[in-house]
Write a structure and sequence with these properties.
CATH superfamily: MetI-like
Strand content: under 5%
Distance between the termini: 56 Å
Radius of gyration: 24 Å
Number of helices: 10
Length: 302
């Protein structure tokens, strides 16, 4: 039998688009203008941080005492600091450390919280009781005070800041995820997996974990802006990434504070970088949360 002919008019045929691309396109179309604007600015910041070695006009740690405290000009767009270092170059390089460390903190804290929540929620009973009492003590201490105490004990470094901040933030997230695990484990397909003799590890990480991944992404994304602020605060107080590493919070601390009133650019541009980054992170990931979580769709939008 001859195959039926297909009528193709000019311009009517289009190359098939993968389903995942279509989903992304629909999500972008549903995103509000504030979310799109925040995502666009955030993309520029991330791209500038990644390309810092290429587009930074100066070495971020190169000092020139003859060019100390220069106001913004054609050679130094954001001026220079008290040591003659170019502030624009330091902000570009600082974005690599600030955004990179924030992403590492969010990923590590989400991993720790998810593991604790899945184990605690699935086994229940005495296992859940012991783990939750530990989590209660974990989140009982004021987070910022605990951060400063632990970093003072271990010493300020990029690795210590990431590890300590990740463990500090994971406690509250694990409590929320545990509630979802308890709901998911009562589903019929989980009972069937137990009946056929599936291993608990397989049930937890093959059947339960995929069901709570959207909630993990929502919680992690919402925390991103707060992590940037905490890292900047630690750097300002001298407990963050040690100098001379160009980090936005540390650029506002130390001797720079002595010149803020006479050289406004020392505080203006690092402060703007922190403010715009946190604002764009919140706008973009709030919109992403509304799309991922069906219960949040339509909230906050007119």
């Amino acid at each position: 039998m001859r195959a039926p002919a297909v009528l193709v008019t000019e311009g009517a045929w289009e190359a098939p688009v993968p389903g995942r691309v279509q989903k992304i396109a629909r999500a972008i179309r549903r995103m509000p203008v504030t979310g799109l604007a925040g995502g666009a600015v955030l993309a520029v910041f991330v791209l500038a941080a990644l390309l810092a070695p290429v587009i930074a006009p100066y070495d971020p740690n190169e000092s020139d005492t003859l060019e100390r405290l220069l106001s913004p000009n054609a050679s130094h767009w954001f001026g220079t600091d008290q040591l003659g270092r170019d502030i624009f170059s330091r902000i570009l390089w600082g974005g690599r450390y600030t955004l990179g460390a924030s992403l590492a903190v969010v990923a590590l804290s989400a991993t720790i919280a998810t593991t604790v929540a899945v184990v605690s929620g699935y086994f229940g009973g005495k296992v859940d009781l012991v783990i939750q009492r530990f989590v209660d003590g974990w989140i009982a201490f004021p987070a910022f005070v605990l951060l400063i105490a632990l970093i003072s004990l271990l010493g300020p470094s990029l690795r210590n800041v990431i590890v300590v901040l990740s463990f500090t933030m994971a406690g509250g997230m694990s409590r929320i995820l545990r509630s979802s695990v308890i709901v998911v484990k009562e589903a019929s397909y989980i009972e069937m997996a137990r009946v056929v003799g599936a291993d608990p590890v397989r049930i937890m990480f093959r059947h339960i974990l995929p069901q709570i991944v959207p909630l993990v992404l929502i919680l992690a994304s919402v925390q991103m802006g707060g992590v940037v602020l905490v890292l900047a605060s630690l750097g300002f107080l001298g407990f963050g990434i040690p100098p001379p590493t160009p980090e936005w919070g540390s650029m506002l601390s130390g001797r720079a504070r002595d010149f803020i009133y006479s050289a406004y650019w020392l505080a203006l541009f690092p402060g703007l970088a922190i403010t715009l980054t946190v604002l764009c992170l919140n706008l973009f990931f709030d919109s992403v949360r509304d799309i991922i979580d069906p219960r949040m769709r339509g909230t906050g939008r007119r």
